[in-house]
Design a protein that fits this description.
mainly alpha; Lysozyme; 56% helix
Length: 126
Amino acid sequence: MIEIIKKIIRLKETLLIAELKKRRKDKTAIQILIEVIAKQEGTDPDLAVRVALCESNFDPDARNWNLGYGYDRGLFQWNEKFHPEVSDAQAYDPEIATRLFCRAVLRGHLNWWKSSQSCWSTKISN
């Protein structure tokens, strides 16, 4: 019975994520998407939200030139030089970018976002 309930919850979360992805210009929707995915991935949702807020202001289409290091892309500003394994499609997809962030954090790579740490280590999300 518990397994069936878990499957139903997972299905509802999947449907919610799909709906939230359609609302990519809605910062509240993106914040909720990040929270849901971070919980699924076993990462602190508040941390994921704070990093995304500091890195991209919840804009999945954010793109910023990083001096001689190429472009930083998406919610978590995946750098194209330091993370060539992250394609543009992945970087700009809010679900995939968030899952990649969560997995990086779980592997001990939160330091990849050290340039914005002064922002996200103290910022309180809404």
